[in-house]
Structure formats: C-alpha cells, structure tokens
Amino acid sequence: PGSNVKAKSGLNKSILDQGWGEFRRQLEYKTAWNGGWLIAVPPHHTSQTCPACGHVSKDNRQTQAQFHCVECSYEDHADKVGAINILRAGHARFACEVSDAARSPATGTHRGELVPVG
User: Which residue from 20, 42, 82, 106 puts its CA 20 to 30 A from 2's CA?
Assistant: First the structure.
C-alpha cells in the first residue's frame, strides 16, 4: 500500500471531516438567511431501516443500491429508503422539538430584513 498509510488515512479523514463541517456551516447559514429551519438527524441505520415496517437489519441492504426488507419484503433503491427515513426522523424531531434539533430562523438575516447602511 505504500508508506505512512496510517498517517495518510488520518489526514484524509480530517480533510473529509472539514468538508462536511463547512458544508453544514454553509447549510445553516443559507437556511437561516432564507428564513428556514435546519433539523439535524442522526444518520445511523437510515439505509438499513425499512420505511414500511420499521425492521432494522444490515441484511436489508444487500447491495450498495438495493434495499430489500428481510421482514416484510419491501423493496426500493437504498438511497431513496435512506431519504425517506431521514425525512421522517426530521419531521418527528421537529414535531417534538427534541434537544434543540429545531432552531428558529435567525432574526435580521433574511435579505428583505436588511437595512441599507449610510
């Protein structure tokens, strides 16, 4: 594999972590700017959970692209299943306002609310 593989993997991980951190920062900023809400949802098992019956199993995700529930036989594209589960989790968190998951829009950040200086 080459030299310093462990050090390079650590560097790659930190670069990837920075990229996602910047993406989230920008997403929070743009969402607040437009008067919207950003709801953080833990991604754990979102592509292994059946949106039809709720069964969670790594066996539900047989390939990278295909989801097939071993409990109820529900089938769909794995990315779509993950998106459905994330959407539902976001709605649930928003409805319950769990642990600062839902943040109100920042005041004074929408373009229509800006006042010209000078």
Answer: 20
